[in-house]
UniProtKB/TrEMBL annotation:
InterPro entries: Peptidase_S1_PA (IPR009003). This is Trypsin-like peptidase domain-containing protein. The lineage of its organism: Bacteria, Pseudomonadati, Pseudomonadota, Alphaproteobacteria, Hyphomicrobiales. Keywords: Membrane, Transmembrane, Transmembrane helix. It comes from Aminobacter niigataensis. The keyword Transmembrane applies. The chain crosses the membrane at residues 272-292.
Amino acid sequence: MAAEIVEHPEYATVCRTIEADHDHLVAHYQAHHLGVSKKYRGGAKLAATCVTFYVMRKGAQHARHLVPPFLDLAYKEGSHPRRIATDVCEILEQPVALSIRGGNAVFGADGEPGTVGLVFRQGDRDFLVTNAHVVTDPGVLPGPVTVRVPHSAVEIEGIVRRMDNLGAAEIRSDAALVEVALNAVAPGRFRGTDLILVGYGEIANNDPRRFFFVSKEFVHEARWAAWVPGGAQITVEGHDKTYASFHKLSVIVGQASPGNSGAVVFCLSKSGLVAVGLLFGGALAINEIWVFPIRRCLKQMGVDV
């Protein structure tokens, strides 16, 4: 007689079923992991509980080891002729921790948003770089900094360890170094791309390359427009300031907007991403961003590149 199929077994029984043969099931059926969930059919959620085999992708790689439609349930008091349905679900890519990446939103104590630029680890300490004017207003001591991780309720607090002087007569770097809890960042990673930071470079005058920056959940693209060797006036949190020695880039994909400040500008290489600039402002009416050389900003923060 065929074993009874149980649609609503106790979760403890299903967990015991998975744990009893977990390693074999994962290896033999080429699963990334197993879970207890409701069964889906044609995208619709059904009432029946099942053991779900989560795989990177369905398809030819599972042809040799097809997941069985049912598994025997493992009861605490011994064997019963009862089974539970299985399901197969794609996860498409390696899961990642909800860590801070370049492009995430960062908020100073005043609650105004900016963008996380670089994230990196030095020894047993995690850091991010953004603009000094993001973490505080000119003439105001910085308070706690908060980063919001997208698609979750996670908020991570940081402490400003170093920042540029926004009271200088001529500002040539607008950066802040923020320390966050260890393992809070995904070093060298940016929102919207699987590529990783592999180095640092410079923007040349009349540079022909494509440049990118990530902010507000969007990957913007820009092209070089001009180099400004002398001073130009810019309004920073209601204060008129003079910034000098920076590049101007024309945004060709996306729209420059408040909150982009602090984003790292990078370009692509054969091996990954090369950071070249730190975005601090721009002329929004003509969709233009203003960018300091990244190496200069990091040097100001005591970061050796």
